[in-house]
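User: Second chain of the day. Same drill as before.
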Amino acid sequence: MWEALSADPVTGLTCALVLAVAAVNGWTDAPNAIAGAVATGALPFRRAAVLAALCDLAGLFLALAISPAVTKVLFSIASFGGEPRAARAALCAGLCAVAVWATAAWRFGIPTSESHGLAAAVAGAAMALPGGCVRPGPWLSILLGLGLSVGLGWLGGRLGRAALEALRPSAALCRRGQVLAAAAMALLHGAQDGQKFLGILLLGLSLSPAGGAFPRGALALACALAMAAGTALGGRRIIDTVGRDMVRLDAAGGLAADLGGGACLLLCTLLGLPVSTTHAKTAALLGAGRQADGRVAGGIALTWLCTFPGCGLLGFFLTKLFLFFP
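Assistant: Same format as last time:
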């Protein structure tokens, strides 16, 4: 494997970029999984980040053992035409576009979906090539997952809140439940997003003559470790935005959001639909929380709407730039 990387530096660069974006995803997307637990005081920030990192690591292997359908969706999302050098340059450009978008969003504390940004940027990069195209089947799965994650996430949070209000558990019991629910959310984040990055990594290696030298298990481990490393950094700004600025949460609301968002992610993962932890958890927080700040929620929604065209255009123009310098 190492011999293949040294003999083909472009393959090494592609792998490094995929893993870098996976780390950025863990840094900016995984905080949504623990936002409720941190906001209500169920877990201190640093302990919650470590818990999420460990669960991220386990989630990908759990998903691959049950169903690798999300990996297949991202692997087949676009065709890069028949010229391998241009195809690999385009994929690298798409990955750079996602990193730029995600880092800019983090700077302003806005939760975005790196997985949706990844799909859009790769599609935009493919469209910049002669003969490149976007395959409609995988995109239908992505758009269906987008609608379900927002709708079911909000509904799950609202129903969870109603159920807990009827049962009236103590605040201490809710906080203990939040620890388990936050761990489950992080596990499902690893299951969902880890598969997406593994799919893109396999896509990049399929464009390389040395692609067959990389065992799938080692690639999955590399993606999981990269996401876990990024998650361990915490992403405190995003936690503050969704867990404190967007809604007012008590222990029951935090638990309801974790349960509702987790149920949505679990269902979509079992169905093989690629969905965003950011969308599911943010919608669940809005369903379960009180006194939502419309300005903050509107800013988040606007960023979500801009993610597809923004990352697609970034991927397209960065590809043109990369190809301009042979």
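The CA atoms of residues 235 and 251 lie 21 Å apart.

User: Great, on to the next one.
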